[in-house]
Amino acid sequence: MPDYFAILDQPRRPWLDDAALKDAFHRATAQQHPDVAGGSGEKASALNAAYTVLRDPAGRLRHLIELEWPEVASPSAGIAPELGDLFGKIAVLRQAGAALAKKEAAAQSPLARALLAGERAGQKSALEGVLAALADGEEAAREELRSINASWDSRDKATHGALVALQQRLAFLGKWQAQLREDLFRLGE
Amino acid sequence: MIVGIDLGTTNSLIGAMDAGFPILLADADGERLTPSVVHFPQSGEPLVGRAANRMRAVDPARTVYSIKRFVGRRVGEEADDVSYPLAGEKGLPVRVRMGERDYTPEEISALVLKKLRADAERALDAEITQAVITVPAYFNDAQRNATKAAGELAGFTVERIVNEPTAAALAYGLDKLQDRSKIAVFDLGGGTFDISILELNHGVFQVLATNGNTRLGGDDIDNALLGHLSRAAGSSSASVVARLREAAISAKHRLSTEDTVTIDLPFIEGAQSVSISLTRAELETIAAPIVEKTRWHCRRALADAKLTPEELNEVILVGGQTRMPLVRQLVAEIFGREPNITQNPDEAVAIGATIQAGILSGAVQNVVLLDITPLSLGIETFGGLMNVIIPRNSTIPIKAGEMFTNAVAGQQSMLIKVLQGEREIAKDNWPLGEFTLDFERAPKGQARVGVQFEIDANGILHVLARDTKTGAEKIVQVSSAIDVSDEAVEKMLEESLEHAFEDMSDRVFTEAKLKSDELLPAVRTALQKVGDQLSSEELTQITTATAEVESALEAGEPHRLKRANAALDEATQRLATLLIEQAMQKSAR
């Protein structure tokens, strides 16, 4: 397995500063892109793969866990209890969205579509509300990540468990935000 | 020396680095812009560029323009509304028929490229063999390969295929290397539209997202205007249309700065003369539905880049069609700011291609373009779905591996179909080609072949298969989807015939009735909600239109019902607007 932290010359830690990571990626690209002397497609694809994984907190944590505890199988924690509530809301919201989209696709006249405008506006503000809650959830998860990062040098078995749970939380939050943003985009069509 | 070439739908340009600066090279007449037009006289060598363009109205059937639309395309995918004859069976690559000989779009493009090459060799007094050629960012793998082939036919080694909006960003940003900024490049040319969003940082021009439509451009506006003018002239004969086309294009250009133009065509058919007056407002009514199509792509690119318009520092306009005031208004509305028009819309892409040539030759230092692949790459699954392997907007070069195993014991091979596109159903995407993987004889799930998909810095796909047991690697030849088998072509033909023989009038009525069944109750509900805000005149119009739909339904007349539905749609326009306003007011409270 490649060590993406080493490829981008980053410390192997849970927390990386977004701006510093981007700078490191751009600096390395300026040296290793196939268009410049000494660069190659091989080197550039490795940089791209590393940046794609490290810039996403969930991807970065999964990679870090694999590097740090290669022999320990990570338990699957399922949906964390603090996310259970949100998950219920999202499921209901997306069902309503799908039903609305179906009605809109079936509507052939501008008038029939206009009759759905109220429902559409309601769906939009509901989506925005849940997206805001998800962003708060992600901020809280990042805060936790920073605190694990602060005590990283004295990491132990408990750190492993905490990181696995946090990784899954971040992965769910990321996935849901992407889904709802996509729903919001389609609603604006 | 590497040259940079903008191979455009309407015009092409060539440039080279000179003492650290990109310069565009002029031909013997001192012109930098070469029309991408080739004329085939009855005898003798083809004419290219301005000389060919002059023959467009005189000999439309032997003058090839806008060939870029057909590059990498199959018959049936593109409307064949051009004045020169196309050849080839449905489903096979498009050919242009000139007398006894058929030309591929690559061959026609190569003629344009050869002229540019000769002009550059004359201007630089040196032999030129290496080139960077631009393509629309939204070109797929087949279109990129075809463009590369055109360059090779013209005697070039194609050092890089670079995306047009990315090149334009380079032209804009080369003197702003230390800035950290985010820009959008809105590129509406003669035949294609691209929107790209980039971030400039430490000399790296990183594309964050791109979107577009390779069949949307100024040509569409020309065609719509031509339709309007030929109706006004009362003639659609080929010779009149050829002359009107020239007049339409010139009128469109003039209306970017003038409010009214008069199109005079003396002695158009025999002794008859035609004089048509056209206002900018009329042109805008004709062009609006076409220009409006760019909006969705801009929203998509912004959403993919996870940016709001306010987070952008600049919106750069390139492509000749962005001279139209209507286009600039729409861009200003979408992005909430006045667009930056400092770039010469015809030249920015060629200048960027030249700078990229300079980067490759080492003449330009400390600058790198980091581009992305515009379309998702995937393979077809057993259920006929698209399984994405490399998502759209992934930074290139990129590699992605996929493991394939035998589904039954002793299975010897597996056919893999490679696709590009964003649709869930495999067949709705663009088929890039297919290849066969060979398995060793082994129990179920034991034979394993790893396949690596690589998209290089040109945006072109390479496939490598590795047998996990022997470790042997081989480059897989993906047979282009463009050489489809005879069987596949026959099937496509059969399907199109099936549709042709369907009972049309029955279907028209069923479809129209479905719409009426929806529309009638919708009108009743809407009238209850906001009917009190309508004038009595509007109410009468709606009542009349409703009665006509009901009576056409009863009479069972398909085309009358279709017309009546359309009239009711028209009559209820304001009703729909009122409903939307009411919904907005409610949600704002």
How does this structure look, described?
- The complex is a heterodimer of chains A (189) and B (589).
- Chain A is mostly helical.
- Chain A has 8 helices and no strands.
- In chain A, helix 5 (81-106) runs antiparallel to helix 7 (117-150), helix 5 (81-106) packs parallel to helix 8 and helix 7 (117-150) packs antiparallel against helix 8 (157-187).
- Chain A is globular.
- In chain B, 44% of the residues are buried.
- In chain B, the strands form 8 sheets. In chain B, strands 1, 2, 3, 4, 11 and 12 form a 6-stranded mixed β-sheet that branches.
- The termini of chain B are far apart.
- Helix content of chain B is 38%, strand content 27%.
- In chain B, a hairpin with a 5-residue loop joins strand 21 (377-380) and strand 22 (386-390).
- Chain B has 15 helices and 30 strands.
- With 589 residues, chain B is an alpha+beta fold.
- Classes of the chains: A mainly alpha (189), B alpha+beta (589).
- The interface between A and B is large, with 40 and 51 residues.
What percentage of amino acids of chain B are in beta strands? 25-35%
Largest sheet of chain A: none
Quaternary status of these chains? heterodimer
Helix content of chain B: 25-40%
As a whole number of angstroms, the C-alpha radius of gyration of chain B is 27 Å
Determine the mean pLDDT of chain A. Answer: 90
As a whole number of angstroms, the C-alpha radius of gyration of chain A is: 21 Å
Poorly predicted runs of chain A:
none
- Percent of residues in β-strands of chain A: under 5%
Q: What distance separates the N and C termini of chain A?
A: 42 Å
User: Average pLDDT of chain B, to the nearest integer?
Assistant: 89
Number of helices of chain A: 8
Low-confidence stretches of chain B: 482-490, 492-503
Along the chain, the helix and strand elements of chain A come as HHHHHHHH
* Total beta strand runs of chain B: 30
Largest sheet of chain B: 6 strands, mixed
Category from helices, strands and their pairing of chain B: alpha+beta
